[in-house]
Protein 1
Amino acid sequence: MINFSSNLSETELIELAKSGDRKALSLLVRMHEKTVFNFAFKICRDRDRAENTMQETFMSLVKSIGQFSGNSKLSTWLYTVVSNHCLMMARSNRKYSETSSYDDDEVYIDEKSVVDWDVSPEKITENNELKRILDEAIQKLDPEYRIVFTLRDVEGLSTEETGKITGLSVPAVKSRLHRARAFLRRELNGKLAS
Amino acid sequence: MENSQVKVTCSEVVRHICDNLGEQLNSPKCLAIKEHIAECPDCSKYLNSVEKTIDLYRQYNFEVTDDVHSRLLDKLGLGEKED
């Protein structure tokens, strides 16, 4: 009988889950569900879709945990599944076909119009208007750029990890990140500039 | 895999910019960029707004409610007897 009150490592939990231990699997789900849900929401920008994506992601985990090699982190695998699922949904909806082109940096880098922003990020939880502004801005960003921005800047992954998850080269990750930041910054500048 | 709540610093933004330019953090080009930013109010404001953009999206999170958690475990056939 495994004593789950002790602090088992993720690797140990994975090995237990592979051998059919449901409690270990439940603990792995609990360890990662918040991050998976938030990452899915940040890409899908819809709570129902985020929940559906989270469920599909963990169903994939349950089905394939036996084949998980451990060569990469479980989180990397989960981010990859969520990314692919969200991109598949976005492509099927085609609602992003009208998003902007990112070919011209000069369109987004508007240093000459810089002003201070009168906003406190830590107040986000109590500011629904600010949430609406953030939602509107990032929804205009192509999901493929949104994923890179979220993995690299929001989740704090390295450029190399982001490339591995998205299947992009390091220079491609850097390019998309730069353009995504500039695009979002420009979109928010019109609403948050004091 | 916990979402980082660490506040983005200006130096981090500068490092990213240098990284994007393919420059090392202590390269002459990167040092020149840092010097320029320190003396240029417009660039400082611009970088500050990029920093706030990143920070805003970092802070915008949801809790997984008990209902969402229960539905997930039910979907996975794991029930709620996990403790």
Note: Confidence is low (pLDDT under 50) at residues 104-109 of chain A.
Protein 2
Amino acid sequence: MIHAAVVHDPIAHEDVLSRVGAEQDGAVLLFLGVVRDHADGRPVSGMRYESYEEMATPVLREIAEEAAGRIGSDRVAVVHRVGELDIGEVSVAIAVSSPHRAEAYDASRYVIEEIKKRLPVWKKEHYVDGTQEWVAGTVPPVREPASATRENAR
Amino acid sequence: MSVQALFFAAYRDLLGTKGLAVDLPAGATVADLVAELRGRGAPFDALPAEPAVAVNRTYAHSSEALHAGDEVAFIPPVAGG
């Protein structure tokens, strides 16, 4: 079962992990993104994540479905947290299972890389010195309009 | 026609608002909306000339035509994960 969610409460990674796994799967992989205590040499005390939730949830599901499609598995679960997070707290958990390890690593990596490219989520770092800044992000790719695509397809 | 513009994260901080209704001529595109807002002067003129935009929760090209009631979100560079 593909699972994708944006949540406000702390992520229990065992719950994310329990959404994958099957008798034919020999590989079960869990990736956790965690708030670290520094950024470019500056000490960080915490992070505030914000999302465009009505869009982030469907985009996260789309990413999980694409990852599953790449490896022909339907055992992909991803949960992204928003709100105020302390150092060491989990911001994103990705669980994948597949018959062999290569597919699990591929799908897990795909999910986190696509999150960074196009999930409408932003984070503001709180520094130990009391200042805060939005983290410089990635401009999401925008496809050519459908009309132009149809034009090109002729 | 009227569309609803939404601003998130750094754009919301820049403009001091989460969103506002914008009146546009029929047939206006995403690019027209951006130009209308930037034409209002400070602080709107600090928006990028070609920001990433989502129309009704899907990323949209600047040439996409808008319709009455559309939700047009200005998406600052994303930083999830």
Note: Chain B touches chain A through 23 residues (CB under 8 Å).
